[in-house]
Amino acid sequence: MIPPRGSYISFxxxxxxLSEAELRAAGVExxxxxxxxxxxxxxxxxxxxRYRQLVLDRLRPGFWNDLVSRxxxxxxxxxxxxxxxxxxxxxxxxxxxxxxxxxxxxDPIEETYNLPEYFASNAFYRDVMVACHGASGRER
Length: 140
Description:
Blueprint: E1 8-12, H1 20-25, E2 28-35, E3 38-43, H2 48-58, E4 63-68, E5 73-78, E6 84-88, H3 94-105, H4 109-112, H5 115-120, H6 123-133
């Protein structure tokens, strides 16, 4: 899916106490449910701040979440010690984000370094990564 202008898509996991009802109350549209607490969601521009806060409040330490739009990829990391790192992908912080994704997911840095390709390996993100972020869309 390619989100409408100003909106984001997010593959939400690592926040098992966050319910569908809470997401909907925050104005988040559930596009797909992959498992009991794993959702593919659409976050409109008016809901980004509420979604961000819900995720940061409920995300378990050692997990991360992302918001992907046509123009940017935003990351919400909650490290093992509960430290929060919020980063928007750019050349300046690509290495840090790749390292954090690698550490928290247990994937080799060689896979996470090209973040659009890494994201495109998840079918939920493939269309936006290929159309808007230059990924090839090939399976890893």
